[in-house]
Amino acid sequence: MKRMPWHIAVFLAPAVLLYSVFSALPLLDTLRLGFFTSNDAGQTSFVGLANYITILTDPAWSESFWNAMWNNCKFFLIHLLIQNPIGLILATLLSLKGLKGARHYRTLIFLPTLLSVVIIGFIWQLILSPLWGVSEGLMDKVGLVDYFAPWLGEEGSALITLALISVWQFVGIPMMLIYAALLAVPEDIVEAAHVEGASAWRIFWEIKLPLILPTLGLVTILTYVGNFNAFDLIYSVKGAIAGPNYSTDILGTLFYRTFFGYQSQIGSPTMGAAVATLMFLVILAGVGAYFYFVQRKLTRYEL
Amino acid sequence: MHNTLYKASVRAAITAALLAGSAAQAGTITIESWRVDDKTLWEDVLIPAFQKKNPGIQVKFTPTAPTEYDSSLTARLAGGTAGDLITCRPFDKSLDLFKKGQLEKLDGKPGMEYFPPSAKVAWQSDDGKNTYCMPMASVMHGFFYNKKIFKDLNLKEPKTQAEFFATLEALKKAGKTPIALGTADQWESNQIVFTSIGANAWKGEEGRKALIAGKAKFTDPQFVAAWEQMAKWGPYMGKGASAQTYADSQNLFAMGKAGIYPAGSWDIAYFNQQGLDFGAFPPPVAKAGDKCYISDHTDIGMGINPKAKNKAEAYKFLAWLGSQEFADLYTNKVTGFFSLSNHLISVKDPVAKQMLDWRKSCGSTIRLNAQIMNRGEPAMENELWNVSSQVLNGKMAPKDAAAKIQTGFAKWHKPQQK
């Protein structure tokens, strides 16, 4: 008889333990808590789906939920359409042979991702401030001063501005991931294409891009998960009531207000758990759809 | 890809655990507070004064940032790691804690006898039978003005609204920002502007009580009038006011670039530090000779955690908070917070004294929505921040603002549903 492979259990234990205690159990408990309600004395009782029905049908709740959801979608689309293409372009440029100072660029572009979001929020608030900021002066120098506006204070532009700040901060991550994938593209294939007379443009579109598609998919799904969990930049710049007129409210800030409360609004852990569960379901649905429709169809080339 | 909420909450939990660890020392009492700005004052003035009378008791003042105070306190109280003494927000936030058994009942405890009933209302159950925090201080609202600018332009403290707008016009002509106010942080729009200038329109307590009793509605002219005044402020608030934060407004006024600053009395200390020469005037009345009303808001109280590790010492500290000595130190050192006790205190700061004197001629009222009205869903305070900011920015008509607040209020407040 073969001996039990105890060593496997031993090696797995730390990760399984940590993951269950700090991730899986809290998640399950959140799902559970969403089915309860609490009274003034802080006691909880089971109410089934009532919290979800309130969030989705009571106008006072559903309006803010769908508003946050729609804002969150916009927030994600801006990242998807601006951050990731820029990341791809930067990575491609960096991987060009003979680019001088590539390392410096790489470090500089990656640097903001290391800074705290609170600092990023503070710095950009100062840069864009109509009172003391440098942006108006800079726009004046190039004759664009008429287009300057208090972007962070206007309903129409606040969310876009915040999304772009976030893009500025995090563009280094897709860049690095794609850069690593590009470096893994074998030299001999590229050289063979050169010899065959393919242009750099054609090499990129027909050789490099198909080879890094799995990485682009990964970047997309990471962006999706990150954006639908996002919270801190909005909170540090606009506070938890995400003004003006909730135009920057996303699921994370909605969750914060509901769970912890804000100013006179008294927090409700059970309602908060319901919002968190909805966030979880949105992310799960997105990731599920990605795996079903995209990941399965991606061709991986054995090189 | 982002720092997620999850990470933030882990960080909060670790901080809470660390704070709890440091509080476990024997004989040390810990004070929870949101007054980060007063930390040095507590450590250098108030705590040593207490220790002189009560040697051997160690006191630690551990404030959390105001916006995070309520949530982190709730978490620590629930987790049993909160400090011995809890600084109380007025009305529902603290009432909520009391109902959960997280604040001790304080009726008849030493020190409580020095406070008039009106001061205790903010920390009592609705029937007035249980008091759970000792009143510490109130704050007042009005306007500060730059004395030098006013003198140069030959302007006087405006008494009526017509004079007020004439003053704003004159300031604008002289190239100054007339009002240092922005709406990026939103709260000032309600707490410093709406509930301050509005008190004159709804006759202070009379209007506030009528709303609670269901005898008046936000859509009545006396309430819409406050927003109508605010709608006229827009052109005087300066460029880019929609992205201007509270700190921006403070700086603008401290640097002498703005003539008038809608203020809470707690700002006195800050502008004194900046060396600014300024005075104060109460919200202007509609026409000369009208009775004036001021927002005189019971803001800070102190309660005791039922699970306090050193409860006897905590009660000793509370008794000292009721004393003449504390009232005097707090009023004169933490300029702009006015003691609520009935000890006689001479106020030394000229602006603080000026504001305190308004109590003699004007009717006092607390912030409009502070009592009962913040209780339901949707949260009225947050809604008021939002609509008042929009009215100031010219994005919402005063009557629409009133209708929105009234609809939300009537949704849960029974007397308003008739």
Q: How do the helices and strands line up, and which of them pair or pack?
A:
The complex is a heterodimer of chains A (303) and B (418).
Chain A lengths: L5 H28 L2 E3 L5 E3 L3 H8 L1 H36 L7 H13 L2 H12 L6 H7 L16 H13 L1 H12 L3 H9 L4 H29 L3 H7 L12 H10 E2 L2 E2 L2 H26 L9
Antiparallel strand pairs in A: 1-2, 3-4
Helix pairs in contact in A: 1-13, 2-3, 3-7, 3-8, 3-10, 4-8, 5-11, 8-10, 9-10, 10-13, 12-13
Chain B lengths: L4 H19 L4 E6 L5 H15 L4 E6 L2 H14 L5 E4 L3 H8 L17 H4 L13 E13 H6 L8 H13 L3 E3 L7 H15 L3 H9 L7 H11 L14 H9 L3 E7 L2 H7 L4 E4 L11 E12 L6 H11 L2 H10 L4 E2 L10 H12 L1 E3 L14 H13 L5 H15 L6
Parallel strand pairs in B: 1-2, 1-3, 5-6, 8-10
Antiparallel strand pairs in B: 3-8, 4-6, 4-7, 4-8, 4-9
Helix pairs in contact in B: 2-14, 8-10, 8-16, 10-17, 16-17
Quick summary of this structure?
Chain A has 303 residues and is mainly alpha-helical.
Task: Report on this structure.
The complex is a heterodimer of chains A (303) and B (418). Chain A has 303 residues and is mostly helical. Chain A has 13 helices and four strands. Chain A has a two-stranded antiparallel sheet with strand order 1-2. A two-stranded antiparallel ribbon of chain A has the order 3-4. In chain A, strand 3 (261-262) and strand 4 form a beta hairpin. In chain A, helix 3 (59-94) packs parallel to helix 7 and helix 8 packs across helix 10 (200-228). The two termini of chain A are 41 Å apart. Chain B has 418 residues and is of the alpha/beta class. Helices cover 46% and strands 14% of the residues of chain B. Chain B has helices spanning 5-23, 39-53, 66-79, 92-99, 117-120, 147-152, 161-173, 187-201, 205-213, 221-231, 246-254, 267-273, 311-321, 324-333, 350-361, 380-392, 398-412, and strands at 28-33, 58-63, 85-88, 134-146, 177-179, 258-264, 278-281, 293-304, 338-339, 363-365. In chain B, strands 1, 2, 3, 4, 5, 6, 7, 8, 9 and 10 form a ten-stranded mixed sheet that branches. Chain B starts with a helix and ends in a 6-residue tail after the last helix. Residues 17-26 of chain B have low confidence and may be disordered.
